[in-house]
């Protein structure tokens, strides 16, 4: 599928649930969230039908996100189902990692290819402050199991809301030096009326501190594992990579290749826009495959040239909280 700016859209990001076992301060509204009744979710059968139809129009990458995708029952069989369609060459997952310790092996066996794990800190007190949960040990166990399971590139997502701590920096540097892991620092996005907590200077700061700490120079390198938004760098002796994702200070919209689907069946042309197209109603009134394609084609055509966050868009103008879309 091509959008009106000539970008090829070959990547579908699916939020499987708006529920989560964590309460990250930058993702969940502070006043709490009224979660959807699970009957509102697109069923796995409905999702497989969508993926099958879009596979005929060039969608060959799927990422499962949420909320926390691993708390939705049946995800392993769903991945197996995507795999058996034969059109999706890359099935990926973004997770908080807390359930990977027990699930990594079966996810890999079902056909999951890549895993991104969100981990902002290895300091238990800070972890608790950010996520509202005392589960750092489970996330670290999940990281270990994911690395052992043999996924094609494990990536760590680190959202920057404040300066990275010294011990955290040492941990991320050691991960990158010793393992084929990509550690990606992400600018905080003030969506879902979250207050603006962090400036955009944190990316430059962590980049500079990595170089001082290692006495090395970060060298730009090819993208790791696909065509995502991160700009990647290597240290001279490292097995892994550092990535920097800068939606606010330096947007990457010209390379956008994705479209999103929320758990309750809204197609979103862009994370940072309030425009949505409902596919659930059509699915539940027995629409044809052609109609499914047309809904997505309309959403692809509605993609704007670039988002406005960090430019002329006020913080909090995006209504949905991140947990209901999937970052
Ligand atoms: N629960 C899973 C997880 O935490 O990885 C998947 C869903 S989470 C919404 C997806 C990604 O979005 C995570 O890497 C998370 O850190 C990131 N994220 C959440 N809120 C964000 C925000 N306000 N700005 C930037 N990234 C955010
Ligand atoms: Fe849950 Fe992920 Fe949002 Fe944290 S970032 S609250 S783990 S969905």
Look at the structure and give the CATH class: Alpha Beta
In DSSP terms (H or I, runs of 4 or more residues), the helix count works out at: 9
Q: Which ligands are bound?
A: S-adenosylmethionine, iron/sulfur cluster
What is the gyration radius calculated from CA atoms?
19 Å
Number of E-type strands: 12
CATH topology: TIM Barrel
Shape: globular
- Strand numbers in spatial order across the main sheet: 7-8-9-6-5-4-3-2-1-10-11-12
The named CATH superfamily = Aldolase class I
Q: Outline the biggest β-sheet.
A: 12 strands, mixed
Q: Tell me, rounded to a whole number, the average pLDDT.
A: 92
Q: What portion of residues is helical?
A: 25-40%
User: What is the end-to-end distance?
Assistant: 22 Å
Strand content: 15-25%
Element string (H = helix, E = strand) = EHEHEHEHHEHEHEEEEEEHH
Name the CATH architecture: Alpha-Beta Barrel
What structural category do the secondary elements indicate? alpha/beta
Quaternary organization: single chain
Count of discrete domains: 1
Q: Report the uncertain regions.
A: none
